[in-house]
């Protein structure tokens, strides 16, 4: 191999390494910005997540954040996807049960606890906390992935003939989700009293849904 070829290969490796490093640095910076935004989200609520406040927390100019996320909505989308991952992890950790009613009750409990533990993420994802933010296709896909456990238990129950009627799985999941979200949203809006009162309504709603979908089977 000639000296020119060796030099060319070395330059190629250096250029590739530089490009990889630049990409890595950009991804690291994006993560730091999202972490700062997530901290604001959890500590001060969705209204605190502005490009200006995130830049102040980062100690950088707003221009850097705009270059990475275009606008506040771009940052909100990333937080939304992070919230989907949190919800998916919570559902994955939910105890499974052989009885589909109990399994659905367990998943419903997880959804309530997520709304309590990650209330700011919940408001961002499902409560319209960012008025100008509308979930795009990637965000919607993230929601479906997060709800996979609920989709699975309903789908299996349908396959076993435990759920009467001719509703498709997606419709049933939306009915369950809308009903449970309605209780949480009313509670967050101050319409159901304190947390104990709201939780009692939530459990009653969850029980009604689960037992209506999965009536006791005759022996």
Short description:
Keywords: DNA-binding, Transcription, Transcription regulation. This is TetR/AcrR family transcriptional regulator. With 219 residues, the protein is mainly alpha-helical.
What features would you describe in this structure?
With 219 residues, the protein is an all-alpha fold. Helices cover 76% and strands 0% of the residues. It has 10 helices and no strands. The protein has helices spanning 3-44, 51-58, 62-69, 72-92, 100-117, 119-126, 137-146, 148-159, 169-188, 195-213. Helix 5 packs antiparallel against helix 10 (195-213) and helix 8 (148-159) packs across helix 9 (169-188). The chain starts with a helix and ends in a 6-residue tail after the last helix.
List keywords for this structure.
mainly alpha; single chain; about 220 residues; 10 helices
């Amino acid at each position: 191999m000639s000296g020119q070829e060796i030099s060319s290969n070395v330059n190629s490796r250096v250029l590739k390494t530089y490009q990889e490093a630049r990409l890595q640095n950009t991804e690291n910076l994006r993560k730091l910005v999202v972490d700062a935004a997530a901290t604001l989200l959890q500590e001060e609520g969705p209204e605190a997540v502005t490009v200006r406040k995130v830049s102040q927390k980062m100690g950088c100019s707003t221009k850097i954040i705009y270059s990475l996320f275009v606008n506040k909505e771009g940052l909100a989308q990333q937080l939304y996807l992070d919230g989907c991952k949190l919800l998916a992890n919570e559902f994955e950790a939910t105890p499974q049960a052989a009885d589909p009613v109990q399994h659905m009750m367990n998943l419903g409990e997880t959804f309530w606890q997520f709304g309590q533990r990650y209330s700011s993420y919940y408001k961002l994802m499902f409560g319209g906390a960012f008025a100008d933010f509308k979930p795009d296709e990637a965000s919607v896909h993230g929601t479906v992935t997060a709800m996979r456990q609920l989709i699975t238990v309903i789908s299996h129950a349908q396959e076993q003939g435990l759920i009467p009627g001719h509703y498709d799985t997606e419709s049933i999941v939306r009915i369950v989700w809308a009903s449970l979200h309605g209780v949480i949203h009313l509670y967050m809006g101050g319409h159901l009293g304190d947390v104990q009162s709201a939780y009692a309504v939530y459990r009653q709603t969850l029980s009604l849904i689960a037992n209506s979908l999965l009536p006791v089977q005759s022996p």
